[in-house]
Amino acid sequence: MPIQHCIVHAIDKPSSDQPARLIPAGNELAVSSLVEDLLSRFNDAYHAKTKAWGHFVDEEAAAGPSFAQLLYSYLTGDDDHAGFSRKVAERLLPLVDAHLSVSGYLLCLDYRQGETRYLSLALLHQREGFGLSDSLEVVPAAQLNLSRMSLGLRINLTQWQDGKASRHYLSWIHDRGGKKLADDLAALLGATEGIDATGETQTLLKAFSDYVEQEDIAEEQSREKTETLIDYANEQASRGEPITLEELSELLDEQQPKAFYDHIRNADYGLSPEIPPDKRTLRQFRRFTGRAGGVSISFDSHLLGSSIEYDESQDRLIIKQVPKQLKEQLKRQS
């Protein structure tokens, strides 16, 4: 991931009742293997977070240039990386005062991943740790706590500049405990959510379950296809990239690469062609299977507790919504 520009500004917040102040960096960081490793670890931490996905809507701000306008000035060369990031840092100070009570470091990265250019911004905090000196004595050692990141965003600059109808080139951290901070950050960015990653991921998994049932796919094949879907979705999530329905369909069935894609379109699930994967939803999805004494049972884990219940005390599995094909067979038999 070639780094174009990287800078870190300090935001000093002495206490919760004192205003935050900016201590701007004098120069950009020189790109090194250590900085590249930081970018890699930062991306891992950021992609693991729950995020909102959207796009800019506030291109004209009455109180001054919008974030999108500042970004445009930077990309056209009217402002350099240090100046642009300093202006952004100044705008973030009220958010720090309103929601955070500790100092931090604003990391601003402009980098490429393949053919795509990204801009990432995040407020990082330090934690105290321990290290060993050359004489093997225990010494204090401060380190950046990437897992504690509560304010961060990433922009797909290539997608935004292309001017295409994408509604999810911008993402920002949207943890459950920091909803107000996330909402205020979106307002500062002049952004709105363009796609519900959690809802779209849930709908995709529902479409897959329907597809497996409709096609009457054998248990072993069903398990293999489930693993293929989850592996692909998790790989895309770890890279910060969306699930592409056509690509997923090709992976699920090489002999009929359009089968799953056609199923989605014909059933009109309302899914976007590209879906930002929600890792929490993916973690909850797997298939329970079992075979014994002439009985074979297989169902998706997200059905447990809704249409399927397990009574552990009496060792019973209760199916509330019997599949249509099975229901018809039972009626004919009775």
UniProtKB/TrEMBL annotation:
GO-annotated molecular function: double-stranded DNA binding; single-stranded RNA binding
Superkingdom in the source lineage: Bacteria
InterPro entries (UniProt xref): Nucleoid_associated_NdpA
Family: Belongs to the YejK family.
Subcellular location, record wording: Cytoplasm, Nucleoid
Protein name from the UniProt record: Nucleoid-associated protein YejK
UniProt KW keywords: Cytoplasm
Gene: yejK
One Pfam short name: NA37
GO cellular component: bacterial nucleoid
Keyword Lyase: no
Cytoplasm recorded as keyword: yes
